[in-house]
Amino acid sequence: xxxxxxxxxxxxxxxxxxxxxxxxxxxxxxxxxxxxxxxxxxxxxxxxxxxxxxxxxxxxxxxxxxxxxxxxxxxxxxxxxxxxxxxxxxxxxxxxxxxxxxxxxxxxxxxxxxxxxxxxxxxxxxxxxxxxxxxxxxxxxxxxxxxxxxxxxxxxxxxxx
Length: 161
Known about the structure:
This protein is mainly α. It has one domain (6-36, 55-155). It contains six helices and no strands. The chain has helices at residues 6-18, 20-32, 54-80, 84-103, 111-127, 135-155. The longest helix has 27 residues, at 54-80.
C-alpha cells in the first residue's frame, strides 16, 4: 500500500479501530511469548516440511509486533481526542462490529441500525433526553474518527512510505 492510497488507508484504519481489543490481545500474547526470539536448538533432525529461514521468520514476527504497537499507540492517541459522546459512539460501533462478525453479516452498513438504537438508548440513560441520530450523522462521525486515526497512523509510521 502506498502512502498516497487514501482509500486503503481509511479501510485499514477503520479495521484497526474496530478490532483494537484483538490487536491488543495479539500484541500482549506476542510480548508474553518472547521465547520465539531466542536461539534455536538444532539437533540435525528435520523439524517440518517447509524450508525456511528462522532468522527471517523472527524478524518478521518482530516487525509485526512493532506494527501492532504503532497501531495501538495511534488509536489510543486518537481516543484521547474524543469527547464523551464520541467515545460512547465508538464503543457502540465496536460492539456492532463484533455482532456482525459473529452473525457473519456482510454488505453495506449493517451496523447503522444497531448503533442508532444503542446510541439513542445510551443518550437517554446518560442525559435523560431522547434523540434520533441519522444515518448520515453516524457516517460523518465514523469518517472523522477514521481521518484522525489515519493522520496519527502516518505520524506513528503504521503505513509504509
